[in-house]
């Protein structure tokens, strides 16, 4: 297996996924990263990724990722061991059913409406001073929007973070930042005895965590006090458009035969809070970043929004007609995947296929080896994508032959009929926005539809441009890809919009 060698300091000068991409071009789609005391295997090939995530999913666990996130998410779906994951996945996945998603569109539009109303009030104030534009950090605004949506959709709690601050909101952001910090810090100093009392950052983290846990515990108690037990089939047939509480928490509490202690429910909610919030805020940030560099694409997107929505808010049915907006979302996810890395650890000795251009005999991986699946490399691979670094929306609408690449079936939209958004099945694991196989993200459609609604409602009312050059927007990475100093944009009311 090819080996990328160097000093640990080589990893810290810029976002990790940039370095992994350079080494991918130099060493190929499977290589060993021999930096520091523990080597990692880096995988950037859909043939190998499919082998790990789908064909041999239970030969791997989350490895170092679970070590990092367990103190925050407990036994939630992301860090959970396989036994716990099996039990909780069977309970949680049915909660994201079609009627629930349809009901959530109202949550998406209400929360997005708060954001656009906030922008309109700021523009009114600017107009009274003779101006016609405002400057905003849209990354921060999208973060608030995503937090409000996940709160209402998952546990029927309104953070109201678009318009206000509170101790709970501050604690949530503190915990999110700590999760990001731990995902990029290679020495787990927080495990050192007394660190939680001696290190100021860790004292604050445990203080924040207690505030959130107390909030979630109260929500769980309230949900249990009004429990209406039913089988899964009956729960999925409720009138979700009209019931008072359509949240995932209500579904989990009411499910017959799914009794768990409050700690497990809290871990489930914390995992969905962090994972759901981070993904959507990042998707919207990079979608706007890319659009702002392509005015013709903004105009085309706005024309579609005007044609489909007019002055109305999106509905479950109109989302299906917003094809161009959906393509913007998925192409943004291709170029800026959230997360840029998936992590697995081999539970036993395994043989990975060599993939395209790799060793035909494959590579033997010892038990305990941590594997970085570089989604960023996968999505920008020159072997599987034409114009891999360009913002080309139409690529998802056409079939792409495998062109003699043994083991890869190419790109074929007909492989997943009825899918609103391209996925790993259509691309045979070359496009991996939410993982794949049994441990794929359960909330992928929630996040995609939420992003579609938010972007459509933004473009319905406003013109957007970057405040500075694209090069001035620096990247940092943790669990997701962020800007270093925010996505500062100029917003104006559309002169010919609604």
The CATH topology of the domain at 1-73 and 339-412 is given as Uridine Diphospho-n-acetylenolpyruvylglucosamine Reductase, domain 2
What number is the mean pLDDT?
89
- So what's the overall shape? globular
Label the CATH architecture of the domain at 1-73 and 339-412. 2-Layer Sandwich
Q: Could you state the oligomeric state of the chains shown?
A: single chain
Strand order across the biggest sheet? 1-2-3-9-6-4
End-to-end gap: 58 Å
Identify low-pLDDT runs: none
Question: For the CA atoms, what is the radius of gyration?
Answer: 22 Å
Q: Which H/E pattern describes the elements?
A: EHEEHEHHHEHHHHHHHHHHEEEEHHEEEE
| Discrete helix count | 17
| E-strand count | 13
Share in β-strands: 5-15%
Largest sheet: 6 strands, mixed
What top-tier CATH class of the domain at 1-73 and 339-412 fits best?
Answer: Alpha Beta
Q: Percent helix among the residues?
A: 40-55%
Structural class: alpha+beta
Question: Would you write up a description of this structure?
Answer:
By secondary structure, this protein is an alpha+beta fold. It has a domain at 1-73 and 339-412: Uridine Diphospho-n-acetylenolpyruvylglucosamine Reductase, domain 2 (2-Layer Sandwich). It is built from 17 helices and 13 strands. Strands 1-2-3-9-6-4 form a six-stranded mixed β-sheet, sandwiched between helices. A three-stranded antiparallel β-sheet has the order 5-13-10. A two-stranded antiparallel ribbon has the order 7-8. Helix 7 (167-184) packs across helix 9 (200-225), helix 12 packs across helix 17 (444-461) and helix 15 crosses helix 17 (444-461). The termini are far apart.
């Amino acid at each position: 297996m090819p080996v990328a060698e160097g000093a640990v300091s080589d990893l810290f000068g810029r976002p990790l996924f940039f370095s992994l991409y350079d080494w991918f071009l130099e060493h190929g789609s499977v290589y060993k990263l021999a930096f520091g005391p523990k080597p990692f295997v880096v995988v950037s090939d859909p043939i190998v990724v499919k082998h790990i995530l789908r064909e041999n999913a239970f030969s791997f666990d989350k490895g170092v990722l679970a070590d990092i996130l367990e103190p925050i998410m407990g036994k939630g779906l992301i860090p959970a061991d396989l036994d716990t994951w099996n039990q909780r996945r069977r309970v949680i996945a049915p909660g994201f059913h079609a009627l629930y998603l349809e009901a959530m569109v109202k949550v998406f539009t209400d929360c997005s409406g708060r954001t656009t109303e906030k922008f309109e009030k700021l523009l009114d104030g600017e107009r009274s001073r003779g101006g016609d534009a405002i400057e905003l950090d849209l990354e921060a605004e999208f973060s608030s929007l995503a937090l409000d949506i996940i709160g209402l959709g998952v546990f029927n709690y309104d953070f109201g973070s678009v318009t206000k601050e509170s101790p709970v909101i501050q604690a949530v952001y503190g915990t999110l930042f700590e999760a990001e910090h731990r995902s990029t810090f290679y020495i787990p100093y927080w495990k050192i005895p007394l660190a939680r009392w001696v290190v100021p950052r860790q004292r604050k983290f445990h203080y924040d965590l207690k505030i959130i846990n107390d909030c979630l515990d109260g929500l769980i108690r309230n949900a249990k006090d009004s429990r209406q037990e039913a089988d899964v089939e009956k729960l999925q047939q409720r009138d979700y458009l009209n019931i008072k509480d359509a949240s995932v928490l209500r579904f989990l509490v009411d499910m017959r035969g799914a009794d768990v202690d409050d700690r497990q429910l809290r871990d489930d909610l914390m995992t969905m809070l962090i994972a759901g919030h981070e993904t959507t805020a990042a998707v919207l940030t990079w979608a706007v970043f890319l659009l702002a560099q392509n005015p013709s694409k903004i105009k085309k997107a706005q024309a579609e929004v005007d044609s489909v929505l007019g002055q109305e808010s999106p509905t479950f049915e109109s989302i299906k007609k917003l094809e161009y907006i959906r393509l913007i979302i998925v192409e943004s996810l291709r170029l800026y995947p959230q997360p840029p890395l998936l992590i697995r650890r081999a539970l036993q000795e395994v043989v990975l296929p060599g993939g395209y251009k790799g060793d035909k005999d494959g590579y033997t991986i010892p038990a305990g080896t941590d594997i970085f699946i570089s989604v960023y490399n996968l999505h920008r691979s020159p072997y599987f994508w034409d114009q891999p670094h360009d913002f080309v929306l139409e690529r998802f609408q056409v079939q792409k032959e495998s062109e003699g690449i043994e083991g890869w079936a190419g790109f074929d939209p007909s492989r997943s009929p009825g899918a609103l958004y391209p996925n790993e099945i259509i691309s045979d694991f070359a496009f991996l926005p939410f993982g794949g196989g049994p441990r794929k993200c359960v909330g992928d459609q929630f996040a995609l539809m939420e992003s579609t609604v938010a972007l459509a409602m933004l473009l319905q009312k406003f013109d957007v441009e970057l405040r500075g050059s694209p090069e001035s927007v620096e990247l940092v990475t943790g669990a997701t890809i962020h800007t270093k100093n925010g996505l500062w944009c100029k917003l104006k009311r559309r002169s010919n919009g609604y």
